[in-house]
Amino acid sequence: MAVRGRGGCCPRMDLLRSEAMQLVQIIIPIESAHRTISYLGDLGLFQFKDLNAEKSPFQRTYATQLKRCGEMARKLRFFKEHMTKAGLSPSKKINSEADIVLDNLEVKLGELEAELIEMNANSENLQRAYNELLEYKLVLEKAGEFFYKAQSRATDQQREFEAQNIGEGSIDSPLLLEQEMSIDFSKQVKLGFTCGLVPREKSMAFERILFRATRGNVYLNQVAVTDPVVDPASGEKVEKNVFVVFYSGEKAKNKILKICEAFGANRYPFADEIGKRFQMIYKVSGRISELKTTIDAGLLHRNNLLQTIACQSEQWNLLVKKEKSVYHKLNMLSMDVTKKCLVAEGWCPTFATKQIQDALQRATFDSNSQVGAIFQVLHTQESPPTYFRTNKFTSSFQEIVDAYGIAKYQEANPGVFTIITFPFLFAVMFGDWGHGICLLLATLYLIMQEKKFSGQKLGDILEMTFGGRYVILLMSLFSIYTGLVYNEFFSIPFELFGPSAYACRDLSCRDATTEGLIKVRRTYPFGVDPVWHGTRSELPFLNSLKMKMSILLGVAQMNLGIILSYFNAKFFGSSLNVWYQFIPQMIFLNSLFGYLSLLIIVKWCTGSQADLYHIMIYMFLRPTDDLGENQLFPGQKTLQLVLLLLALIAVPWMLFPKPFLLKKQHEKRHQGQSYAPLHVTDDSIDLEEHHDSHGSHGHEFEFSEVFVHQLIHTIEFVLGAVSNTASYLRLWALSLAHSELSSVFYEKVLLLAWGFNNVIILIVGIIVFVFATVGVLLVMETLSAFLHALRLHWVEFQNKFYEGDGYKFQPFSFAILNDDDD
């Protein structure tokens, strides 16, 4: 039975039963509604019900305020993006100054956003102009080199002609030279040209399109720019070529301009006279220097603004989140008929009644309201939410249970027992005190760095490991314990608790066998005698030990589950479940597998050579035959007959009475002969909830459905008693696998490398051994044993008593806002 807190701020923590909950109604004056919800959020012990579920978000009272908060949250995300780009991180310190008014914050955020947008626009324009000037300078330099080389070649050719023209009448002079030299230069066609940059990846296509569009009537020259150039339009670095295109005619010019535009080629003006060209280069260089200074000053001013924002962004962000969550909860409240009050309904623990009332009084006083909030408890048939108060140690164990299903309201919580049974069953499969120490050291590091890691965003795997650090802590401690029981330290036995009880009779027994060993001392005081390791009898001995131990542990845990079903039945007042579920289940399970466990213990105590397989098989096939040499104690045959008869009686005991009694109860209730409240038996509640899961009371009773449900439940338990017991043999199988893998890594890697008497081979062997131990035994085997222990708890243990069909208590709390996304 749960111990309930009786008010006050510090009631006892009780994990066996969830906290007693109550449905309450709070009538709040409008003038103090905001502050009331805010104080309840600080308290974090009230779960609101949505009383406006039929309304869309836009039809609710505080939709406008929510929209404002959303807009402010958008502005804060805008600031955060720019701070990230600038390499700034928001300050984690929250200034404990006077409260910030939301309206003032909205105005301030709007001004800061407008200023930042203007700065960004100016910076983009200046950066674009700067990049254009850099491209222009490259065009002037590269195209200027082309024109300079062309003019140099023309001058050299002219001088060559003049040097060769010695006499006009020379027989070697061309006949048409005189005509060529007498051409009127004013009648020559003057070629136009355009310069610019084109992306290098488009340069070949650019050249082909120019050639085809003008039918070859162009001359194109391209020069590759060594370093990537920042494109003014996109702001990205692009490899480009400087081009010069010569053309003739206005039509060719128009075609070339359109092609340049289509290929994203930036064109720039160019003077073919060298004097003007140098003058333009000088002007562009000066302009580049001025723009660079202006851009640097703008960036400095922008960074100063972002730095100012970063100092307060966390505080602003938290305030906006709080306000948004408060208005979201206010939208869940219904408006009173007079439109002067808001009505809230929700769940809270009974121990929090005084704290909530104090918060309501403070809100009324701080709001200067003339009317206080009214707090009243409502009576309902609705199932309350489930709330367990956990701490950082117990929360991870509770999450293991919650992953299977949330406990029904005040149902027995498996989490209490999971704290011990889960790490213990893990350790049975992982037993090696060397590996346990490695796990312990890793876990202690996580615990010592708890404050550091809890404030960081970790990866998925590391976050999961850090969250379960206390589970791993107990897993490692129990692994050390079971490792001492198995006497294995990286598969090596040690005489920690004294010398072995056995010794060699003579020197001829040193051949890895137990033949020739005699008991010379008292039994090894704790765990497995180290002499068993390395002998030919080691595997049969440990197999027998671990298999029998697995059955004992399994039967004990299944009995615990059935006993918890009794406490559930007593707590909920269901006598039917006590007499027709708990008792026959206990009889059936212990008549078969409880008896098997008894035989195992008697055999261990007496040292008998009886065959337990033979006993259990012929208990069913030939129950009246004499046991002969398999008899472990007097009266065993009679006991077996009685237990077999009880097991056979338990099956119809579970199957038939309960459906007929439920039918009889239903008929009495509807004939007015029984006025017992509906919560007398949880079976009737379950039945009604089965017909109507929304809380309305079902009036139909289908006897066939109830009987089939009970039949399925009976078959499931009878077959499950066998399969679940067999399932616990995984404890033996995984323990054996872990021990054998550890032995293989030690003997076939470490000892083999040691035998070569070579330092390099020994170092390589040690490295391989370490990586194999960490990767396989400390990671993969840990995960494997964890999953198997999880299955044993979810299926074999919890299905005996745990329904897990409840829903979690999710109070409105500001404490979890930092973990939520907008």
UniProtKB/TrEMBL annotation:
The keyword Methyltransferase does not apply. One of its GO terms (biological process) is vacuolar acidification. It is found in: Membrane. The keyword Cell cycle does not apply. Keywords: Coiled coil, Hydrogen ion transport, Ion transport, Membrane, Transmembrane, Transmembrane helix, Transport. It is a multi-pass membrane protein. Residues 95-129 form a coiled coil. It comes from the Eukaryota. One of its GO terms (cellular component) is vacuolar proton-transporting V-type ATPase, V0 domain. The chain crosses the membrane at residues 424-447, 468-486, 549-567, 579-602, 638-656, 759-780. GO terms for molecular function: ATPase binding; proton-transporting ATPase activity, rotational mechanism. Belongs to the V-ATPase 116 kDa subunit family. Essential component of the vacuolar proton pump (V-ATPase), a multimeric enzyme that catalyzes the translocation of protons across the membranes. Required for assembly and activity of the V-ATPase. PANTHER family: V-TYPE PROTON ATPASE SUBUNIT A (PTHR11629:SF63), VACUOLAR PROTON ATPASES (PTHR11629). This is V-type proton ATPase subunit a. It comes from Dillenia turbinata. The lineage of its organism: Eukaryota, Viridiplantae, Streptophyta, Embryophyta, Tracheophyta.
